[in-house]
Amino acid sequence: GDFSNLKLYFFPPGIGVANPRINVRKDNITTIPMEVQVEAKELRVSFAPIQMFSGVLQVSEIAVKGGAIQGKLFDDIFKPTKARQKKKTSRLSWQDLFQLQVNGFRFEDTYLNIRTELPGGKGEEFGTELVVKELTLKKDHIQEKEGFTSSGTVNAVRMTPPPSWKSFPVKEANQLQWNIELTDRGLKLNPFTADLSGIRLKLNGQVDG
Description:
The protein has one helix at 94-97; strands at 2-10, 13-24, 34-47, 56-73, 99-102, 104-117, 125-142, 145-160, 172-183, 186-196, 199-208. It is mainly β. Strands 1, 2, 3, 4, 5, 6, 7, 8, 9, 10 and 11 form an eleven-stranded mixed beta sheet that branches. The longest helix has 4 residues, at 94-97. The radius of gyration is 18 Å and the shape is globular.
C-alpha cells in the first residue's frame, strides 16, 4: 500500500498514516478472512506490545477517517479462530512467524461497500452499502460464543440480503442507528432504528441464523 506522513502515538500506543491506499487479500497476516480495498484521509492503528515469544501482535482497533472501503468478508469469520487452519508447506513463511490479530474497527465519515458471505455453505451473501457517520465493530464473547458487537449511525443505506431472507425488514434507509450482537446463532438487535423516508422504525429482538 501507499501512504504519507507517518505518525507515532504513545497513548494509546499506535501508528497513524495520511492518505493511505491499501489492498488486503484473503490470505493475510490477520485472523480475519477478508478481501478489502481501502482509501482514506487518515488511518490509525492502536495496539498492545508484541507478547514475548507469541509471534502475535494484538491490535485493539483500526480507525479509518474520511475514507472509502470496498471488500468481502468470508464465512470463515463465523468459525472459532482455532478452527481456521492454514495449509502447511515445506517452506517457512512470514505468516508462520508473525500474526496480526485485529480485535476491532472504527469508522468516521467513510463510505462502505461490503459483501458478507453467510455461514451454511450455500454461497449466500449479504451486501451492505452506506455512508458512515460513526461506526464501531469489535470481537466479543457472547454467551460463550465467539461473535461481534457493533454500534453506529449511518446514512444513505442500501442492503442486499440473500433471496432466502424474504422477510428481512429493511433494504433501504435514509439513516440507521444500532447496537447489535452477531454470532453463528443469529443477529440480536438492542435496538435497531431505521429512518425510511420520514417513517421511523425501532426494532428489538433477534434474527436467527
